[in-house]
Design brief:
The structure holds 3 protein chains of 3 kinds. Chain A is an alpha+beta fold. In chain A, about 35% of the residues lie in helices and about 25% in strands. The termini of chain C are close together. Chain C is globular. In chain C, the strands form 2 sheets. Chain C has a 9-stranded mixed sheet, sandwiched between helices. Classes of the chains: A alpha+beta, B alpha+beta, C alpha/beta.
């Protein structure tokens, strides 16, 4: 081999090690006017990774609807902030931790929770709720039981210990996640009246750059760039050191950070997340239009053998970077010390836009931070314009079911992984710490009481992968519409959205096309609803051995309601009440039931934002009426499944007259039990049928054209069975047993603890 | 078949953060104990049924690798006992 | 107004919840810091709230039991001051020897969050003293290490000494004799695994917790 070839091979190996391509290398040389040297390779590698730079998604994300009179802070900070009025504000965000959770499920999920909590309290908000959106493969897929167990334990282990209640969640199963699970964690934090919002923008030359929290170890070095790659067969071999989360340390960090912020001792603050010290310092300086001098040898280390490059890239958990005025350093250190933590000045802010990194007095690099942040490449990945998918004539959408097999099919649905109970999961989460929880994972919306105003804050997650598989644009629309409707059905006005865009390899046209279509669907509805998307992240390269996951844009929504006293439940409350169905039929889908039967997706109709917005607003007002006792949005597996869930939880039965059921299904073939109508809601009310009708008509008239809606009187609560005349008659305890058995059949070793007698 | 006894000592990998060790170390230091460093692992006693000692050791090794120890974050050592 | 000291250890996370509940119950709550001694005579009662002091590392409550403030807690216990440990606070009182027994990993080996029904048994505790024996309460639990363990001899002593305070009507964690709460021999120190501060208002799903934190109205 000649020398040139050898050099070229070395160069190729270097590019591979730092996960940069030749064009990006050329771009770097152009920007800095020379070859990158030493730690500069690592800096560009980290900050130009997909994970940090959003290089494949930025051109699309900039179109997102992200303003409203309520938005105080949208993208660009650690989390979005929304004004609730009365001096109360919330910060919230959802983020992925997919790759680390597949490698080491407990620590991956735990550090995912820890990271998103830091994004919240770094802004000065006390975390008050967390939620998680999980997608697993088929139960029989390799390692799946261990992955489910580890992820759930990890989320609980971290969230419970740190003292933030987990109030809602969503869990999906599908073969496309067999080798690439999704773990998305959301956190919500509250600013009480008078509490200040802190940002990451560095200011004030002469101010100190202060490192606080845990010491730096080898954890997750190169983690950010690894998260920006597809999984191959050798993923096991190129694991970085697993990041270990310590919720105890995080709790100390929360208290000490909130304390220094309450005393107004910090100018700017950001947590060290992906790409650790590199991303936090460069982003803080770049946003502030200033530079930093940093002495890497002053960073507290857990392992004295770390090199400057390791220190820059380490993803050790529970660390913060702050800008502090010199006169306030001592007080900052006292506060941290009281909580048993270190705060060390490692550098200072300088007026020039230069990052000067030193190692024992020797200058390692001097570089403009904007080159690594603002000037990161932006790719316009090829995509195709979306056209509606899976459309069939309406009559072909639903699967008709004979009365003779209706019960057996309901059992099949309730015992399937998609239909069965999630109790095993949420029982392991502390849903009540904080003493503000009104409704938890047993209900479809998590509800917290805001201490100062007594109002209710609703938290809910969205995105139904099955709808994404049917049509990405519909799926994006539905990722907003469905959770927004869940909020409305409990009387909450949706305020804003956070999203976590989990997609496959963006270099593939079909993946990028679904990305653009889904964003388009989300964006259209957000604009009409005036619920801006204010924070989130993008997780590309969810691809293993060439196989991409279902495109999954998960969402988190928060909503507001004036009180918490009469929030409708999600199960029937008592016998002798009227049961209605309210709906805006736009799209009929064979839905999850067709998928369960192994049939191709099929749907008819179109989703439209404007009528939906009217329906949503009317429903919000209806649900605030104290005569509405229980509500449930009809979702996967359609009306029969939703009714079964409302019966099995509370053991309060319902009798649906044949006429009522057929009226509810009239547009479709007789006996169709499980198809899905976008969108419909079941309501239980203590009002008489005529009283209820006039309540609904009043609200509909106030909010939208009445003729698009349908209202069906389904029947009455009575007894303890789900009874649909002429079709089904199943006792509540049997429904519950099926639902539990479904979980146990899927995961025989993951058992819900029972009662233990005298012991 | 005979019974062979083993002890399996599982420790956090040196490069991995030992959260328990850190908390115990801090507490002891606060009490004024002359302690430099603390690491917390766990100790598992196994009684393995096997034809001979080599087989038993192999089995203990497999048990440690497959369940007792998570090689991503822990290491283990096996000692023969009695 | 009664003065109630609320102890905070590193990792305590129900401190604010308990602090507020004491206020609702009509007393003045006062923070006490783990690293400081306090005047045991200055408080009408003490509460050790739940959480994960020291991350539950080594054994739940073991590291907090060695905190400086526990010297003052011990002094207050000797003086007969009513002292209540909730969840992790109960674990700390057991680890410090102020209450008998130990709290070990749940029989199901997992964290468990749910509402449970409790039955009042012993009548020695000043907390919930107005409840008659056999009274039933609905209060949530949230713990991984709540399985109360004692040997036969101690169990007998607890029974004879009226020290079994609360029992689960359906045992959620495998506790010996379905015990949810106990007192010391004198009765002034009590501990329970469920969280009364999480059952204080109708919107929480129940108000029975008020019947336990009822010393001061």
């Amino acid at each position: 081999m000649g020398q040139t070839e050898r050099l070229d091979e070395e160069f190729a190996a270097k590019l591979k090690r730092y996960r940069l391509n030749r064009d990006e290398h050329k771009r770097i040389c152009g920007l800095i006017g020379r070859e990158p040297q030493g730690v500069e390779w690592a800096l560009f590698s980290a900050l130009w990774s997909e994970h940090c730079s959003y290089k494949s998604s930025r051109v699309h994300l900039k179109n997102l609807y992200n303003t409203s009179p309520r938005v105080l802070q949208a993208f660009g900070e650690n989390a979005g902030v929304v004004d609730l009025g009365d001096g109360e504000r919330v910060a919230f965000k959802i983020e992925s931790h997919n790759h680390p959770s597949y490698i080491e499920p407990y620590q991956g999920a735990a550090t995912g929770v820890g990271g998103i909590l830091r994004d919240i309290f770094t802004m000065g908000a006390r975390p008050i709720a967390s939620a998680n959106y999980l997608c697993f493969g088929r139960p029989e897929a390799e390692r799946m039981e261990k992955l489910v167990d580890g992820v759930v334990r990890g989320i609980g282990g971290y969230g419970n210990a740190v003292g933030v209640p987990t109030v809602t969640g969503q869990t999906e199963f599908h073969e496309s996640y067999d080798r690439n699970i999704l773990v998305n964690a959301m956190a919500v934090g509250l600013f009480r009246p008078g509490e200040k919002v802190f940002l990451s923008k560095a200011k004030g030359p002469g101010n100190l750059v202060v490192y606080a929290g845990a010491k730096t170890g080898r954890d997750g070095v190169h983690g950010a760039s690894m998260a920006s790659e597809s999984f191959g067969k050798d993923s096991a071999a190129k694991r970085p050191t697993v990041q270990i989360g310590d919720p105890f340390f995080e709790k100390l960090l929360i208290e000490s950070c909130l304390e220094v912020m309450a005393e107004d001792l910090v100018v700017a603050i950001q947590d060290m997340g992906a790409a650790g010290l590199t991303s936090s310092s460069f982003e803080m300086a770049s946003k502030g239009g200033v530079g930093f001098v940093m002495h890497l040898d002053r960073v507290p280390l857990r392992d004295s053998t770390l090199t400057p490059e390791d220190i820059l890239l380490s993803e050790s958990q529970e660390r913060m970077l702050m800008v502090v005025e010199p006169s306030k350093l001592q007080r900052v250190q006292e506060v941290f010390a009281r909580w048993g933590l270190e705060a060390v000045a490692i550098g200072e802010v300088i007026p020039d836009r230069k990052m000067k990194l030193y190692w024992h007095g020797q200058l390692l690099t001097e570089i403009d931070p904007d080159l690594l942040t603002e000037h990161a490449p932006k790719y316009e990945r090829p995509f195709e314009v979306w056209s509606p998918r899976s459309r069939v004539p309406q009559a072909q959408v639903a699967v008709p079911i004979e009365a003779s097999i209706a019960e057996r099919e309901l059992e099949r649905v309730l015992t399937s992984p998609q239909g069965c109970s999630r109790e095993f999961i949420y029982r392991q989460y502390d849903a009540h710490v904080g003493a503000a929880t009104v409704a938890d994972c047993e209900d479809s919306v998590g509800v917290l009481r805001l201490k100062d105003s007594g109002r209710g804050l609703g938290v809910v997650l969205g995105c139904r992968p099955q709808v994404m598989r049917q049509d990405a644009r519909d799926g994006g629309f539905d990722a907003i519409a469905y959770p927004a409707l869940e909020l409305a059905a409990k009387g909450f006005e949706p305020l804003a959205v956070t999203d976590c865009l989990n997609f496959g390899n963006p270099e593939r046209v079909e993946v990028m096309s679904s990305f653009v279509a889904a964003l388009d669907g989300m964006n259209e509805l957000c604009r009409i609803l005036e619920t801006p998307i204010i924070s989130g992240n993008v997780s590309f390269y969810n691809e293993t051995e060439g196989r991409n996951i279902t495109s999954t844009p998960s969402t988190g929504l928060v909503g507001l309601r004036p009180d918490v006293l009469k929030v409708p439940k999600s199960a029937f409350s008592s016998s002798g009440r009227e049961v209605f169905l309210l709906r805006l039929p736009q799209l009929m889908s064979g839905g999850a039931y067709r998928e369960l039967r192994g049939q191709e997706p099929a749907c008819a109709g179109q989703l439209a934002a404007r009528p939906f917005a009217g329906f949503l607003r009317a429903l919000t007002q209806v649900a605030r009426d104290e005569k509405v006792l229980a509500t449930r949005v009809v979702g996967k597996f359609g009306l029969a499944y939703a009714l079964a869930k409302m019966v099995s939880r509370s053991r309060v039965g319902v009798r649906i007259g044949r006429g009522g059921f057929e009226a509810a299904r009239h547009t479709l073939a007789a006996g169709a039990l499980f198809h899905e109508v976008f969108y419909e809601v079941i309501l239980e009310t203590s009002a008489s049928p005529s009283e209820f009708r006039s309540l609904v008509m009043r609200q509909l008239a106030a909010h939208s054209p009445v003729d698009l809606f349908e209202m069906v009187h389904l029947g009455k609560t009575e007894g303890s069975a789900l009874l649909i005349e002429g079709l089904l008659n199943v006792e509540a305890h049997k429904l519950e047993a099926w639902s539990q058995a479904g979980w146990t059949n899927a995961f025989e070793n993951l058992k819900l603890p029972q009662s233990y007698g005298e012991a | 078949m005979a019974i062979y006894k083993f002890g399996v000592r599982v420790m956090p990998r040196p490069e991995v953060l030992d959260t328990q060790g850190r908390a115990v170390e801090e507490t002891l230091k606060r009490e004024g104990r002359k302690v430099q460093a603390v690491r917390v692992g766990r100790f598992v006693e196994l009684e393995v049924q096997a034809g001979d000692e080599a087989q038993a050791t192999q089995e203990a090794q497999t048990i440690a690798e497959s369940l007792l120890c998570n090689s991503l974050i822990e290491t283990f050592a096996i000692e023969k006992r009695g | 107004m009664a003065r109630v000291g609320v102890l905070r250890f590193p990792g305590t996370n129900c401190d604010r919840d308990v602090f507020e509940a004491i206020g609702h119950a009509g007393a003045e709550a006062i923070w006490l810091w783990h690293a400081d001694l306090f005047d045991a005579k200055a408080f009408d009662a003490l509460v050790l709230p739940g959480g994960f002091s020291y991350g539950d590392y080594l054994r739940s409550g073991a590291l907090a039991a060695r905190a400086v403030a526990m010297k003052s807690v011990r002094e207050a216990a000797d003086r007969g001051t009513p002292i209540l440990g909730i969840c992790n606070g109960f674990q700390i009182l057991c680890e410090s020897g102020l209450l008998p027994g130990a709290l070990t990993r749940n029989a199901g080996l997992r964290f468990r969050d749910q509402w449970v029904e409790l039955e009042k048994v012993g009548s020695q505790s000043p907390f919930g003293a107005r409840l008659s024996s056999g009274a039933r309460l609905r209060v949530p639990i949230a713990h991984a290490d709540g399985r109360y363990m004692v040997n036969d001899e101690t169990l007998k002593a607890l029974q004879d000494g009226q020290q079994i305070w609360l029992r689960y009507t359906e045992n959620p964690n495998g506790s010996r004799h379905a015990i949810a709460g106990v007192t010391n021999r004198k009765g002034n120190v009590a501990g329970l695994m469920p969280h009364p501060e999480r059952a204080f208002h109708a919107w929480m799903g129940g108000e029975d917790g008020r019947k336990i934190l009822d010393l001061w109205d």
